Amino acid sequence: MTPHSLAFYLDVVTTGTVLGVGPADSPERVAEVLGPDFAEDHFGDRGMGLGYGYGFVELFWDRASAEHAWSGHHFTVQVHRLAFRDRADVHDVLRARYGRFTPRLRFEKLERLLARRGVPLLEIPEIPASGPYFRTFWQPDSRVAVTVIGTYDEHETPDNLRVGDVYSVHGPLAAAEVEWRRAQAG
């Protein structure tokens, strides 16, 4: 096992899933794999999210109406929440598989380990409202994005994270959005 549960983040970035499931799976399938201990949020009858470990891992679905099936939208691993050092933030299923989780994840370490596996991360332009405080790196095969603290600002970035710490891991981020961001950046 990679020390300090880096294996979890490597798996998520490489596969675009959490323990093999993601928003492309039904909410029932996700609950089957990750367990029934989740917080369920509904956004009217057309949006739903499942949060595991007090929102450390979140998956989202939407649908056209209550009569339609859920369609996967995205997932987010809220890495920044671990900096509060609450052991309950990591769901038991993840802790059982990967061990303990450190309060912060350094991007340079994650990027180096991914590169050793032949999994590149490409920096993409940030959405103007987020830059320069955050930087985003994209893995084109899994379509996963890693958001990193780019610079500190007392009103924009968490006090308990440092420049170079991973803020979140999320996906999928479509190639069309990456191209749109590049076009907007010029």
Describe this structure in words.
The structure is a single chain. The protein has 186 residues and is α+β, with helices and mostly antiparallel strands. The model has no long low-confidence stretch (mean pLDDT 89). Helices cover 25% and strands 24% of the residues.
Brief summary:
The chain has 186 residues and is an alpha+beta fold. The protein has 5 helices and 8 strands, in the order ααββββααββββα.
Regions with little confidence, pLDDT below 50 for 5+ residues: none
Helical percent range?
10-25%
**What separation lies between the terminal Cα atoms?**
42 Å
Quaternary state of the chains = single chain
Can you summarize the main beta sheet? Answer: 8 strands, antiparallel
User: What's the Cα radius of gyration?
Assistant: 16 Å
Within the largest sheet, what's the order of strands? Answer: 1-2-3-4-8-7-6-5
